[in-house]
């Protein structure tokens, strides 16, 4: 197996194709659970102690029909649960053809051994692409740009005191990005960390004066 390198733009484009097919309503927050169950017809299987015993939040079954998710994450960490579903959907959408015929496991431990046995570069590419897909599918590029600009005046007003005191942009930028991420996280139903990564990856922090 050789996992191709994909740029962030390529992954973003893939998520837009995915959403146009499975969520043409183009609303936010993206209803990833409904897409998984009603559009992709995948079973979501709550699994006790998946995180504690195996240090993973979820995985895609070898027949590509189920996503197993740590039951605590599902019940108590909603943004992480949504991100886990989106990550596994990313593997299904981007990597199914690569994995078909190669995946053969009957337990979580065997799944981990399969992953460990992958060539390091392939494993790194695949995981990065899964994480990036999750970020782009839950926070579509056109939506974050619009919501960022909508919220920007409020964030800028919070910076007025720092600017009046002569504090440099470098010194207050982290606060501004964090404040924006906290606000947008609720709009997209994702963690602030996901939004922060997108703000930086999309160059939106350059819009903060």
Task: Give an overview in words.
This protein has 209 residues and is mostly helical. The protein folds into two domains: 8-138, Arc Repressor Mutant, subunit A (Orthogonal Bundle); 141-207, no CATH class. It has helices at 8-22, 32-39, 50-54, 71-76, 78-99, 108-117, 120-138, 141-158, 160-164, 169-188, 192-201, and strands at residues 43-47, 58-60, 66-70. It has a three-stranded mixed beta sheet with strand order 1-3-2. Helix 10 crosses helix 11 (192-201). It is elongated. The model has no long low-confidence stretch (mean pLDDT 92).
Ordered list of secondary-structure elements with their pairings:
Elements: H1 8-22, H2 32-39, E1 43-47, H3 50-54, E2 58-60, E3 66-70, H4 71-76, H5 78-99, H6 108-117, H7 120-138, H8 141-158, H9 160-164, H10 169-188, H11 192-201
Parallel strand pairs: 1-3
Antiparallel strand pairs: 2-3
Helix pairs in contact: 1-7, 5-7, 8-10, 10-11
Concise summary:
This protein has helices at 8-22, 32-39, 50-54, 71-76, 78-99, 108-117, 120-138, 141-158, 160-164, 169-188, 192-201, and strands at residues 43-47, 58-60, 66-70. It is mostly helical and 209 residues long.
Please bin the fraction of helical residues: 55-70%
Order of helices and strands: HHEHEEHHHHHHHH
Strand residue content: 5-15%
Biggest beta-sheet profile: 3 strands, mixed
Radius of gyration, in Å, reads 19 Å
Low-pLDDT residue intervals, each spanning 5 or more residues: none
What is the tally of beta strands?
A: 3
Mean pLDDT: 92
CATH class of the largest domain: Mainly Alpha
Oligomer state of the chains in this structure: single chain
Number of helices: 11
Cross-sheet strand order for the largest sheet: 1-3-2
């Amino acid at each position: 197996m050789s996992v191709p390198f994909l740029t962030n733009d390529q992954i973003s484009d893939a998520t837009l194709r995915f959403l146009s097919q499975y969520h043409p309503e183009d609303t936010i927050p993206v209803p990833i659970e409904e897409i998984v169950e009603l559009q992709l017809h995948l079973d979501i299987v709550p699994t006790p102690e998946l995180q504690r015993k195996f240090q993973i939040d979820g995985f895609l079954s070898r027949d590509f029909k189920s996503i197993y998710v740590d039951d605590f994450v599902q019940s108590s960490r909603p943004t992480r649960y949504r991100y886990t579903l989106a990550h596994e959907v990313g593997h299904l959408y981007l990597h199914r053809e690569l994995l078909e015929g190669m995946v053969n496991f009957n337990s979580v431990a065997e799944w981990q051994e399969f992953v460990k046995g992958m060539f390091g570069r392939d494993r790194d590419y695949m995981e990065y692409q899964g994480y990036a897909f999750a970020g782009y599918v839950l926070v579509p590029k056109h939506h974050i740009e619009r919501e960022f600009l909508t919220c920007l005046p409020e964030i800028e007003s919070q910076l007025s005191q720092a600017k009046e005191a002569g504090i440099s942009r470098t010194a207050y930028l982290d606060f501004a990005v964090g404040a924006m991420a906290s606000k947008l996280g609720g709009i997209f139903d994702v963690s602030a960390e996901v939004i922060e990564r997108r703000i930086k990856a999309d160059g939106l922090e350059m819009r903060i004066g």
